[in-house]
């Protein structure tokens, strides 16, 4: 299911979770480039996306919780999206 929101387009997976593309997270949540998002993920400073074949999608709830917690490094600290 594709849903248009004020923060871009989100897709729901089969479990009712709202998924965001790398571009959606970059433009609507962090105001940076998609390439910077990939660098943050690769360096462990951001939660990893879910891989759907060749696509990468972030769970909206995980990104919002991570931002709410002050964007901590996820590999260095014991950060949990739950």
UniProtKB/TrEMBL annotation:
UniProt-recorded Gene Ontology molecular function terms: DNA binding
Helix-turn-helix domain span: 19-69
Pfam families: HTH_17
InterPro entries recorded: HTH_17 (IPR041657), SinI_DNA-bd (IPR010093)
Protein's name in the database: Helix-turn-helix domain-containing protein
């Amino acid at each position: 299911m594709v849903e248009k929101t004020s923060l871009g387009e989100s897709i729901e997976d089969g479990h009712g979770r709202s998924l965001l593309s790398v571009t959606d997270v970059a433009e609507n949540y962090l105001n940076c480039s998609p390439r910077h998002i990939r660098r943050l993920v690769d360096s462990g400073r951001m939660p990893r996306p879910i891989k759907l074949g060749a696509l990468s999608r972030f769970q909206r709830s995980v990104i919002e919780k991570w931002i709410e917690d002050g964007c901590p490094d996820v590999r260095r600290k014991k950060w949990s999206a739950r």
